[in-house]
From TrEMBL:
Keywords: Cell membrane, Membrane, Transmembrane, Transmembrane helix, Transport
Name by which UniProt lists this protein: Fosfomycin resistance protein AbaF
Domain Major facilitator superfamily (MFS) profile: 40-451
PANTHER family attached to this UniProt entry: SHIKIMATE TRANSPORTER
Domain of life: Bacteria
Topology in the lipid bilayer: Multi-pass membrane protein
UniProt main location, coarse: membrane
Organism, as annotated: Paraburkholderia metrosideri
Length: 457
């Protein structure tokens, strides 16, 4: 597998190396001591886990209970659509957060921004736990929910991009795939925590108590995310790549403008790569919960158990796929996940519709652990290697969050609408999922292999 340019159709070739507008074009990679690398990695994993715990808590609640609490006057299907609509609103805010905080990360440093985004996400999530429901304040309840969801989206817009940038810029080139996959391990742990807390609370309480006050507990626990995450991230050193840019006075003053001018087709390669990864994450972990409980009349504990098992499986598969990408390249691993998602969509529904609790749990877990996490585990290294040092934070955050509006953010809403329009048939939903896989697979085939690139350039 080559480590430089790859051919586009015809005689066109894709310029992998960025055309840097600053004072220097090529640098030696900054040396990072073992302690700094360890601290950066631990910060990325723990901070991202706490951040995505907050984010998935909302998604799980939207799939399971928010239709009853905030949209009780609507039918079950319409209420679910409305709940996923508030969920999608956060994705509309994420590009703004990605641009604003990504720009700040390229101007002022990766570390400072990561502290701010974590505190903002934790505060908004905790506030949801105090929100009165529709029964108490009427339409003000869903409006307040939307406002808090927007704040969540602003924070999430730069969280993952900043974490993988910091981790990748601190890692040696030969092990970058492994270390850049570890923030994804944080996403996995956040999913595990959120699904686990909901699973425990749901099983310790009656249905009435759970709907009355139990659902608030997972949101209120975000106070620990604020305290622990902020403390951990304040102990981390700044990225050595950014410190080198500052030392050479080569920090860009207009990262967004420069990024669009210089990224060229690499921006759209990354954009396409997001579709299957982003859509499959919310398809497997969020929408499937609503599908099996409302369409198949399966206990929500079955779906939560599948998500828990899948997140647990990811503790092994995520670092493995990252490690493997350091040996065979980023593209083969990413393509494996994308093709598995597309080819496996119809079998996924067949197994869900079997009605077997064990098959449903295993199907959800394997889909998450192998298809989604294969893509997500190498995305951090791949995207860092696609973009230049001066605009990297902005580029990764922008491409991730703008693409999320068209992929993951609206996926549960679109899947629910397609299921309803198809009279309960999963076939339109499966076709939609396959289309997302095709977009990503074509983008990856056209795109370059980037393994081994110097991130200081």
């Amino acid at each position: 597998m080559t480590q430089g340019n790859s051919s586009l159709p015809g005689n066109t070739r894709l310029d992998v190396e960025p055309r840097v507008a600053g004072k220097a074009h090529s640098h030696a990679a900054p040396k990072v001591d073992a302690r700094s690398l360890r601290n950066a990695t631990v910060s990325a994993v723990i901070g991202t886990a706490l951040e995505w715990y907050d984010f998935y808590i909302y998604a799980t609640a939207a799939a399971l209970i928010f239709n009853k609490l905030f949209f009780p006057s609507l039918s079950s299907s319409a209420g679910t659509l409305a709940a996923f609509g508030t969920y999608a609103v956060g994705f509309l805010a994420r590009p703004i957060g990605g641009v604003v905080f990504g720009r700040a990360g390229d101007l002022y440093g990766r570390k400072k921004v990561l502290v701010i985004t974590l505190v903002l996400m934790g505060s908004a999530t905790m506030a949801i736990g105090f929100m009165p429901t529709y029964a108490s304040i009427g339409m003000a309840a869903p409006i307040g929910l939307i406002v808090l969801r927007i704040l969540q989206g602003l924070a999430a817009g730069a969280e993952y991009g900043g974490a993988v940038t910091l981790a990748a810029e601190c890692a040696p080139a030969s092990k970058r795939g492994f270390y850049a996959s570890l923030p994804t391990l944080g996403v996995c742990l956040g999913t595990l925590l959120s699904a686990g807390v909901f699973f425990i609370v749901n099983n310790l309480m009656s249905e009435a108590d759970f709907l009355g006050y139990g659902w608030r507990i997972p949101f209120l626990l975000s106070v620990f995310a604020i305290a622990a995450g902020a403390y951990i991230r304040r102990q981390v050193n700044e990225s050595p790549v950014f410190e080198q840019l500052k030392k050479e006075k080569n920090v860009t003053k207009e990262p967004l403008k420069e990024m669009f001018r210089e990224a060229g087709p690499r921006f759209w390669i990354a954009f396409a790569a997001r579709f299957a990864e982003n859509m499959s994450g919310y398809f497997f972990q969020i929408w499937t919960l609503a599908y099996i409980t409302k369409q198949l009349a399966v206990s929500r504990n079955i779906g939560l158990a599948g998500v828990l098992l899948g997140a647990s499986l990811g503790i092994v598969t995520i670092p493995f796929f990252g490690w493997l990408s350091d040996r065979v390249g980023r593209k083969p691993i990413y393509l494996f996940g994308s093709l598995l998602f597309g080819i496996g969509t119809f079998p996924y529904f067949w197994l869900l519709n079997s009605g077997s609790s064990l098959l449903i749990i295993a199907t959800i877990a394997i889909a998450i652990g192998f298809s989604n996490y294969a893509m997500l585990s190498v995305q951090g290294a791949y995207f860092n290697e696609l973009f230049g040092a001066r605009t990297r934070f902005t580029a990764i955050s922008t491409v991730r969050e703008v693409s999320a509006v068209f992929a993951g953010g609206i996926a549960p809403f679109i899947c629910t609408a397609l299921l309803q329009a198809g009279g309960g048939s999963y076939i339109p939903v499966a076709i939609y999922a396959i289309a997302m896989a095709v977009i990503t697979s074509v983008g990856l085939i056209i795109g370059p292999e980037t393994r081994g690139r110097n991130l200081a350039d």
